[in-house]
Amino acid sequence: MRVLLFVALVLLACGAHAAVARETRRQTLTAASIHVHDGDTFYVGAEAFRLRGIDTPELGQPRAGPARERLRALLHGGPVILVPRGEDVYGRTLVDVYVGGRSVARILKAEGYAKRRAKPLR
């Protein structure tokens, strides 16, 4: 029984340590260091970042240009806070992005920049 309690305490401590480690990966950037690719992808140097929680039109698709410009404008609105959340299938870092304490993905969604889903067949 004591062994199980000890293991549980160690796992709790490791989990807390992992949460602290994730939190310390948070980055604050200036807009000058960011190159916007499209409405949900941008680069800082050679590293690609993908907004988590939104999918905007790809370059060449309708509404892609306005989505890209809106993302650029949002990222120029103040210090940009990136919170890494994983990696996508293309090797881009998935991030929650905040400017002025507001979620960039939520703003883009609320303003209608998310891809429209196809209507289901009936």
* N to C succession of SSEs: HEEEEHEEEH
How would you sum up the major sheet?
7 strands, mixed
Low-pLDDT windows of residues: 1-24
CATH class of the domain at 26-110: Mainly Beta
Helix percentage? 25-40%
Strand composition percent: 25-35%
CATH architecture descriptor of the domain at 26-110? Beta Barrel
Structural category: alpha+beta
Q: What name does CATH use for the topology of the domain at 26-110?
A: OB fold (Dihydrolipoamide Acetyltransferase, E2P)
Can you count the beta strands? 7
> Distance N terminus to C terminus?
57 Å
Mean pLDDT: 83
Number of helices: 3
Radius of gyration over all CA atoms, rounded = 18 Å
> How would you describe the shape?
globular
Q: What would your notes on this structure say?
A:
With 122 residues, this protein is an alpha+beta fold. The protein is built from 3 helices and 7 strands; from the N terminus they run H-E-E-E-E-H-E-E-E-H. It has helices at residues 2-24, 64-75, 104-110; strands at 27-29, 34-36, 41-44, 47-51, 80-87, 93-99, 102-103. Residues 1-24 have low confidence and may be disordered.
